[in-house]
TrEMBL record, chain A:
Keywords: FAD, Flavoprotein, Oxidoreductase. This is Acyl-CoA dehydrogenase. The keyword Oxidoreductase applies. It comes from the Bacteria.
Automatic annotation (TrEMBL), chain B:
It comes from Streptomyces albospinus. It comes from the Bacteria. Pfam families: PP-binding. Residues 9-87 form the Carrier domain. InterPro entries: ACP-like_sf, PP-bd_ACP. Gene3D superfamilies: ACP-like. This is Carrier domain-containing protein.
Length: 366, 93
């Protein structure tokens, strides 16, 4: 296993992020190599074959991927969330069987959203029904990131009186994965809808047994996703800051570099403020995670909300600074502009994050 | 959040006291040992996760897999029983 995961990601991405974005796909062998190095879910402990990074170190790794390619970073978010769900909700045996696969090159995704269950996950209608020593799944999942590449799906559905997450190999009869055509952002992240039609699996594929609450199940799983998206947004902002600063330094108008025009200099200052603010709030959340602070769930929402908002504004600012040079599809700031918008939607929309934070404000949590 | 389970043993009264203090501090409400926290008007799913993480840190244990079932967190009594079981404190001397 490589000690230099950032270097490995840099080498695998090279200068191909724009081409992947335009093609809408990352070569699956790239993902398998990164997966086999543990880079896609780097917090998986060594006992399961993972790098066992802390939340802080994995956060920096995620930000690094985010500076290069948000589609790849989205795949990392999905694989990490799948691994985290298995780690938290799996039995000892399920963890021992499933987690090493995710650090040896198998690819995984999580499936929450449905046509009628986006922000309101309590409306999930996918069913998991007992039938002897098997379970049968029926449902329709939408916008499952990385499902287009996945060997394994972690599907959230209704089970008995509560809920369950079920490990569903994508080769199981009754599973149909349909890529989302031409998504706005993170175009190569393998976003796909998943149809589950009488999908029969051994009951041992149900993580966590019976009696799980849907809100706790999804909150625990999404908290990893929020951390990962937040750090990915830090990467987007860093990429925008870098591109805008380089352009403002090199391009001259009215006889002097753009950076010497005060209105452009202000844009650069705002980008730096965004980068520092998003980084600090992510570091705080990662510290909560690594210290097992109960504040973690709120800190993750705060980090995601702050970082996604800054990423969207920073990307718009960077396009403004680069102007025509940044207005070509596939260019880093053009990708950032589209990718960052999606970050304000996934893993808790801006509005859902605000509702959660407002609830905390009313509880006097701060 | 790596896995670790200590050899520490606890008595029910101490676990209950600790849990009630955390609940009161977090929710600004005092809770009876047998009150269902998740009944209508109770705590949110965000708080449920805080409870899980708090219990793990306070008592040096990992709550995973089937132990995350919501019935283990409904009341102070339920959580106390979970802590005693996972720390082996309910096994007698």
């Amino acid at each position: 296993m490589s000690d230099d995961l950032p270097g490995l990601i840099s080498a695998e991405v090279g200068d191909r992020a724009a081409a992947w974005d335009l093609a809408g796909t990352i070569p699956v062998e790239v993902l398998r190599r990164l997966g086999a190095a543990g880079a896609l879910c780097a917090e998986v402990p060594a006992e399961y074959g993972g790098p066992g990074l802390s939340s802080r170190r994995n956060g920096e790794l995620t930000a690094h991927a985010g500076t290069l390619c948000s589609s790849l970073r989205s795949v990392m978010t999905s694989q990490g969330m799948a691994a985290w769900t298995i780690q938290r909700f799996g039995t000892r045996r399920q963890r021992a069987e499933a987690l090493p696969r995710l650090t040896r090159g198998d690819l995984a995704a999580v499936a929450f959203s449905e046509p009628q269950a986006g922000s309101d996950l309590s409306a999930i209608a996918t069913t998991v029904k007992d039938d002897g020593d098997t379970v049968v799944l029926n449902g329709h999942k939408v916008w499952s990131t990385a499902a287009g590449y996945a060997d394994l799906l972690v599907v959230f559905g209704r089970y008995q009186d509560g809920a369950a997450a079920v490990l569903v190999p994508t080769t199981t009869p009754g599973v149909t994965v349909r890529p989302v055509p031409q998504p706005l952002g993170c175009r190569a992240a393998g976003h796909a809808d998943v149809l589950l039609e009488d999908v029969r699996l051994p009951a041992a594929q149900v993580l966590s047994g019976t009696g799980q609450s849907l809100p706790l199940l999804t909150t625990l799983a999404l908290t990893y996703g929020r951390m990962s998206v937040a750090w990915g947004c830090v990467g987007i902002i860093r990429s925008c800051l870098r591109a805008a600063a380089a352009h403002a330094r090199d391009r001259e108008q009215f006889g002097k570099p753009l950076a010497e025009h005060q209105l452009i200099a202000r844009h650069l200052a705002e980008l730096l403020v965004a980068e520092q603010t998003a980084t600090r709030v992510c570091e705080h959340a990662a510290g909560c995670w690594d210290d097992r602070s109960p504040e973690l769930s709120t800190a993750a929402v705060l980090a995601k909300h702050v970082a996604a908002g800054h990423a969207a504004r920073s990307a718009a600012t960077a396009v403004q600074v680069l102007a025509s040079a940044g207005s070509v599809d596939g260019e880093p700031v053009a990708r950032a502009y589209r990718d960052a918008k999606l970050m304000q939607i996934i893993e808790g929309s801006e509005e859902i994050c605000q509702l959660i934070l407002a609830e905390r404000a009313l509880e006097g949590a701060v | 959040m790596s896995e670790s389970t200590t050899e520490r043993r606890f008595v029910a009264e101490d676990v209950e006291t600790e849990l009630k203090q955390f609940l009161e501090k977090s929710t600004k409400t005092s809770w009876e040992s047998d009150t269902d926290l998740f009944a209508d008007g109770g705590v949110s799913s965000m708080f449920a996760m805080e409870l899980v993480v708090h219990i793990e840190r306070s008592f040096g244990l990992a709550i995973e897999g089937p132990d995350l079932r919501i019935d283990n967190f409904r009341t102070v009594n339920d959580m106390t029983a979970l802590v005693l079981r996972l720390t082996g404190s309910d096994a007698g001397e």
